[in-house]
Amino acid sequence: MNPSVPVSRVNSDTLRALFNMRLLTWPDGSRVRVFVLDDDHPLHRRFCKEYLGVFPHQLRYSWNRRVYSGIGQSPQQVKDAQEMRKKIAETPGAIGYLPEELIDESVRPVDLE
Amino acid sequence: MKAFVRWTLNRSRRLTCLALAILAAPPGRADASSWKEGLELHAFVSQGYVHTSDNRFMGDSQNGSFDFREIGASASLRLSPRWLFSAQLLSRKAGDLSNDSVDVDYALVDFTAHSSETWRLGLVAGRFKNPIGLYNDTRDVPFTRPSVFLPQSIYWEKLRDIMLSADGVQGYAEYYSGRHAFFLQLGVGLFQTDSNLEWTYLNMDPPGEFERGSPEPVGRLLYELDGGRVRLGLSGLTAGLTYRPGPVDFLGSGDLDLEYWVGSFQYNAEKWSFTVEYMQEPVRMEDYGLPVLERDQAAESYYLQGLWSPTSDWELMLRYDAAFLDRKDRSGEEQSAHDGLPRHRYYAKTWSVGITWKPDRRIMLRAQHDWVDGTAFLSGRENLDPTTMSDRWRMLSLSVSLGF
Q1: Is A40 left (phi over 0), alpha (psi -120 to 50) or beta?
Q2: B246 φ, ψ to 5°?
Q3: B77 DSSP β-pair partners
Q4: What is the arithmetic mean of pLDDT over B221-239?
Q5: B356 touches chain A (CB under 8 A)
Q6: Check: CATH 2.60.260.20 for B44-403?
Q7: Are B36 and A34 in contact (CB under 8 A)?
Q8: Which residues pair with B109 in a beta bridge?
Q9: Which H or E run includes B88?
């Protein structure tokens, strides 16, 4: 594990905070960058429901409420899992999700507590 | 160096459901981010069509009006996790109530003083949107609304300006604990005023105008369960305005003091949601030198709204919406006797059905039909002669919205 990435495990509260776009830094102060698939993408739906405990439209609502009143930003949306992997691999501080079979050495899975 | 760690989920869950993993970028790469990476841009354009059986709303609606148009563009720049700069420009044509000049909808700097899994604290300065009810702070963005028009009982078109935004500062605190989340926003600022305010409270456009007084408070406390499955809120603002008479004026230097309180409840399921909001607005008016303008009453309104999305691109809406300018005189009888306007000017009860189709994230088509009893939410500015207004009327509205 390289010390410059400070997180090897997250708990579900942290995960929710990250994907709600309200936890903006990793513990070492570096910037978090969140990547998601389209609201209708099966992987995104599943991730929202099973890991965040929300429906995609609820998550979208919480982003929109901040974005359209000027007090927040939304995650970067990618078009498919391949692009997700590429973006995560090349963006410092990036977090996203992938099907297990797409995980390769360019990215690093983290533990969920 | 690149360790692989699978989810440490219990075995049954892992086997039965998922092949998902959360990933973090590999280390060792210099942060090559430029300021452009923190830039987020949005724009939207929406064109509406309104046809009413009687009365005017959004222009000459009895003959079909296209005078409902919203064009907006926003930019936000996150320079660091602490500093966010954002602004939105908005051009809005709303019948006789708003021409399509370009206005600064918001322009602010947001400083996050503290951010962790459980707390987020910060300060916003500049022009910020007033956090009233569930919709006010994004009310002009079609994609955030449930229908062509928001329920008029709480999101009055004719009161929009004073409700819209404030120039000042706002502190915020967010607290998260397991399934529970609390959001508090408390601001102080100067609200926007324009001549719609005179039409709304004086029912005319006199030579003078209302002036903003000292900065006023506005705030919202919102509780969310399970990331928004249940949403419960209380929000409000107070405003004290003084009428500054024109050089030749038949009105004295009167006061307008109002409070605006909204209680909100929303339940969100996967395919449907239910929303109730209740509003009370105490209004006191005095010293205009005109007895019909002396008022001390409280307006009251509420709506119940159900949304159903059978598929992700279709949504159906059913809503009942009621507003009374004086909660103790719901039929308008006493107010009508007091200042001579027809009774229906003091209440409005509306049934609405709506349908939304989003064939694509960037395109949205909407239709809404309203059956209305009363005219309280219609502006005298668009309906100059109250005697020609009808108490029972219908409205069809359509909109096409594009945005990214």
Answers
A1: alpha
A2: -75, 175
A3: B39, B85
A4: 95
A5: no
A6: no
A7: no
A8: B85, B125
A9: strand B83-94
Rounded Cα–Cα distance for residues B212 and B162 (Å): 10
Cα B379 from Cα B48, distance rounded (Å): 19
Query: How many whole angstroms separate alpha carbon B137 and alpha carbon B128?
Result: 9
The pLDDT confidence band at residue A78, using thresholds 50, 70 and 90, is: very high
Q: State the DSSP string of B250-319.
A: SS---EEEEEEEEEEEEEE-SSEEEEEEEEEEEEEEE-SS-GGG-EEEEEEEEEEEEEEEEETTEEEEEE
Rounded (10°) CA dihedral B302, B303, B304, B308: -150
pLDDT in tens, B17-57: 344 566 665 554 444 457 788 899 999 999 999 999 999 99
Of A67, A92, A101, the CB nearest to B29: A92
Across the interface, of B76, B108, B176, the residue whose CB is closest to A73 is B76
Token readout for B73 is 């563009």
Show the tokens assigned to A16: 């929710």
Question: Would you state the structure tokens that stand for residue B295, as one six-digit string?
Answer: 């008022």
Task: Give the integer Cα–Cα distance in Å for B61 and B25.
Answer: 55
Q: How would you class B214 by CB atoms within 10 Å of its CB: exposed for 0-12, middle for 13-18, buried for 19 or more? A: exposed
- Give this complex's ipTM: 0.89
**B315 lies within 8 A of chain A by CB:** no
Mean local confidence (pLDDT), A100-106: 85
* Straight-line distance from the first to the last Cα atom of chain A, in angstroms, rounded to the nearest whole number: 18
Residues B376, B380, B385, B391: what is their CA dihedral angle, to the nearest 10 degrees?
A: -20
The domain locations on chain A are 14-94
In chain A, which residue's Cα lies nearest the Cα of B75?
Answer: A70
Which residue among A14, A51, A65 sits closest to B138, beta carbon to beta carbon?
A: A65
- The DSSP output letter for A52 is I
